[in-house]
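User: Here's a structure from my thesis project, written as structure tokens. My advisor, Dr. K., wants to see whether a designed sequence matches the one we expressed. Can you design one independently, without my sequence as a hint?
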């Protein structure tokens, strides 16, 4: 898409659009509807889109952390964000006081770069295929345990059901 002048971020942003110019878009949006949204917002700059995209992402993350606070509590995630915070602080300090912190910034950047192992995006063990399989397994588990079709659930209902099954599983093990 990027080779024919269409920025992939513009198309991806369309998936977050609920309504535009008074027209409602469904949750399960079609390629044609994504293209329609892209046509309407084609005069929006990439930086404006990035700002809007970040705002949506932060809102989702905030709401998910309020409803499901244990989902992001792993020590590894906390360590990763601590490194990001240290990097940001070093960059801001360098800008504010003019002291060269290039070595510290480069060291933190290097640590962040290798923090998570690279992921494979091709073949049968690709991230996309693994995610699809895990989602399907979660849907099957929810359907089995709760006798409802998980694919028809809202995101909130899906994660609530999954969290409830996890709690029940922990209780059963005790």
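Assistant: Designed independently from the structure alone:
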């Amino acid at each position: 898409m990027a080779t024919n002048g269409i920025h992939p971020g513009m198309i991806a942003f369309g998936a977050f659009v609920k309504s535009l110019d008074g027209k409602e878009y469904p949750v399960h949006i079609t390629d044609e509807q994504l293209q329609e949204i892209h046509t309407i917002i084609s005069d929006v700059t990439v930086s404006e889109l990035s700002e809007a995209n970040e705002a949506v992402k932060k809102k989702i993350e905030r709401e998910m952390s309020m409803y499901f606070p244990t989902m992001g509590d792993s020590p590894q995630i906390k360590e990763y964000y601590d490194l990001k915070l240290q990097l940001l602080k070093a960059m801001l300090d360098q800008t504010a006081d003019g002291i060269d912190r290039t070595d510290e910034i480069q060291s933190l950047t290097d640590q962040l770069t290798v923090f998570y192992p690279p992921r494979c995006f091709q073949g049968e063990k690709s991230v996309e295929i693994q995610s699809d399989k895990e989602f399907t397994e979660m849907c099957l588990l929810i359907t089995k345990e709760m006798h409802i079709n998980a694919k028809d659930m809202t995101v909130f209902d899906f994660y609530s059901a999954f969290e409830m099954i996890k709690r029940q599983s922990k209780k059963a093990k005790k």
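When you compare it with your expressed construct, this may help: The radius of gyration is 21 Å.
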